[in-house]
Amino acid sequence: MSKFDFSPMPDANGYFGEYGGQQIPPELKAVMDEINQAYEEIRQMPEFKQELADLFADYVGRPSPIFYARRLSEKLGGARIYLKREDLNHTGAHKINHCLGEALLAKYMGKTKVIAETGAGQHGVALATACALVGIPCEIHMGQVDIEKEHPNVVKMKILGCDLIPVTRGTATLKDAVDSAFDEYLKDPQNFIYAIGSVVGPHPFPKMVRDFQSIIGTEARRQFQEREGKLPDYVTACVGGGSNAMGMFTAFLEDDNVGLVGVEPAGLGLDTQKHSATMSLGHPGELHGMKCYVLEQADGTPMPVHSIASGLDYPGVGPQHSYLKDLGRVQYASATDQECLDAFMTLSRVEGIIPALESSHAVAWAMRTAPTLSRDQTILINLSGRGDKDSDYVAEKLGL
Questions:
Q1: Of 102, 214, 384, 389, catalytic
Q2: What are the pLDDT digits (tens) for 188-219?
Q3: Of 18, 172, 264, 383, whose CB neighbour count within 10 A is largest?
Q4: Which residues carry this modification: N6-(pyridoxal phosphate)lysine (predicted)?
Q5: Residue 6's pLDDT is what?
Q6: Which domains does the chain have, with CATH numbers?
Q7: Which of the following is catalytic: 64, 84, 95, 139?
Q8: Active-site residue 41, yes or no?
Q9: Cα separations (Å) of 62 from 35, 52, 56, 57, 103?
Q10: Is 7 a catalytic residue?
Q11: Which residue out of 86, 117, 339, 358 is catalytically annotated?
Q12: 117 classed as catalytic
């Protein structure tokens, strides 16, 4: 029996404690409520569940394996490190898990276009893939800064047939891409559906994305017990909006003896303005239709944020993460750009696994923490994506 109470989460109004909800105009609330009702009905349909399960197995390649990083563990000393290999999924990251769910939901609801934002491009590639599979037009909004950083994913999205919209407003990064995509969605919310790329936004999206991503933790919990005969001592994942972390953490929430650690971007340092450390330095506020922790400027507007990882440079975070922080169930740490780069190169050269820069934040925390633990302790990292998309950028940055 856990000392924490997690049910129901969210409540009927979409709140996780005081976070979440629908901070949106009344006319949009009706649309969100319709999506919630359709989701709750469709997700119970045997044909929907079977189609999604078949695609997870035969299209994505699930279950993704867990891998004992023996050489990395021996190099660091201390705790033994395991990786949940979401980087081996079709399209190269965890994003395909909820994108297939959202694209199928759109098909079952009879929607005519799927709209989304993307940061690092992984959500964009995964959604373009899923929409090509089910035959629904797809429109992806991406910040111009991220387009220049993530060229391989930009090319993939175009090959897959999506309509890619460059966003030059504001900082031309993820937050601005969300704003742009939402503006387009509002033009015809009856026929369009906004496939949010993380556990953020108005209810029911934080719940929906979490549910589709929870397969990560469900698999990992079973796999780890089969491998080790016990649960891991620590489970860690990077946190931007927080979908891969919530997908992993959900299965372990009631296991009080398992430490859960979300790792967010410290960027150039928490003492600078160049970071995305929402949980470390943010405060409760409102953003993109939800109440959550937010990094704000003095005038109350979202702070321009920074991370070497395009998928993490977001000034908010999922409402369930915000609740779990206040509850004390999840510890939120951070890693700098330099720590992230070091982890990226170390995992690549010690284990032959090139991780996404996003995932490298969690690897950095594990590298920092493992030497402080004993050999009989274990750390399970959700390796949320592979680093193909980041290789040219890292090579240029490090002069390789």
A1: 384
A2: 999 999 999 899 999 999 999 999 999 999 99
A3: 383
A4: 95
A5: 78
A6: 16-56+95-210 (3.40.50.1100), 61-92+214-398 (3.40.50.1100)
A7: 95
A8: no
A9: 27, 11, 5, 5, 18
A10: no
A11: 117
A12: yes
